[in-house]
Amino acid sequence: MVRHEVRLAGFGGQGIIMSGYILGKAAALYDGKDAVFSQSYGPEARGGACAAEVVIDGDQVDYPVLTRPDILVLMSQEAAQKYSADMADDAIVLIDEDLVTTGTGKTVRGAPTTRIAEDMGRRIVANIAMLGFLTGATSVVSRRAMEEAIKSTVPEKTIPLNLNAFNAGFEYGERSRP
Q1: What is the pLDDT of residue 102?
Q2: Is residue 76 a contact partner of residue 83, using CB atoms and an 8 Å limit?
Q3: Would you say residue 60 has pLDDT above 80?
Q4: CA gap 64, 91 in Å, rounded
Q5: In sequence order, what DSSP letters do the residues of 103-169 get, joined into one string?
Q6: How many CB atoms lie within 10 A of CB 3?
Q7: Domain range for residue 118?
Q8: How far apart are the first and last CA of the chain?
Q9: Residue 119: its pLDDT value, please?
Q10: Would you give the DSSP letter of residue 178?
Q11: Within a 10 A sphere around the Cβ of 46, how many other Cβ atoms?
Q12: Counted domains in the chain
C-alpha cells in the first residue's frame, strides 16, 4: 500500500480542520488503513490561513509528520501562498477554482466547491464538497469510507445536506481524473 501525505489548507472558518479529521477517520475506521491527523493554525484561527495534515498508509505509519505532500487541497489564496512549498514532484493539487489561482507547475485540478455549497443554500458545506472532490479525483480513500465518516461526524439533521455536497464534489472529482 502506498503512503499518502495530504495537506488541506484554507482559512479559519472553512472547516479545514474538520475536513482533515473526517479524512483521517474515513481512512482509519472505514478503509482499514493507518492514519495520523495533525492541524496548524495561527492565533487568527477564524479568517487566517490554517491547515490540516493527514498521513495515510496501508501499513503502520512509522513517521507521522508530512515531509512532502503528494496531495494538496487549497481553499484560499492565502493558504496557497503559505502552504504550497515542499510538495512531492508528482503532487496533485486540488483547488476551489473560484477562490484560488496557483502557479505551482504541478497537476492542478479545480472544482467550484464554495459555489456548489452556495447553490445548496449553505456555504458551510464547501469543505464537504471539497472532500467529495478529493475522493473522486484520487484513490486516497474509498467513497463508501468517506460517506460513512461524514455520516458519523456531522450533526444528524445535516447528514442529507452534507451527503449532497459530497456527491456534487465527487462528480467533479471523477470528471477530473486523467
Answers
A1: 75
A2: no
A3: yes
A4: 19
A5: --SSEEEEE-HHHHHHHTT-GGGHHHHHHHHHHHH--SS-HHHHHHHHHTTS-GGGHHHHHHHHHHH
A6: 16
A7: 4-176
A8: 21
A9: 96
A10: -
A11: 10
A12: 1
Residue 113, amino acid: T
User: 156: Cβ–Cβ under 8 A, 6 or more apart, which residues?
Assistant: none
Question: Phi and psi at residue 79, in whole multiples of 5°?
Answer: -65, -35
Could you read off the pLDDT of 116-143 as tens digits, one per residue?
999 999 999 999 999 999 999 998 999 9
Q: What is the pTM of this model?
A: 0.93
| CB-neighbour burial class of residue 85 (10 A; exposed 0-12, middle 13-18, buried 19+) | exposed
32-36, 45-49, 59-63, 64-68: range with highest mean pLDDT:
32-36
Domain of residue 156, CATH code: 3.40.920.10
User: 174: how many CB neighbours lie within 10 A of its CB?
Assistant: 14
Cβ distance 150 to 162 under 8 Å?
A: yes
C-alpha cell at 75: 481553499
Instruction: Read off the amino acid at residue 87.
Output: M
What band does 104 get if pLDDT is binned at 50, 70 and 90? Answer: low
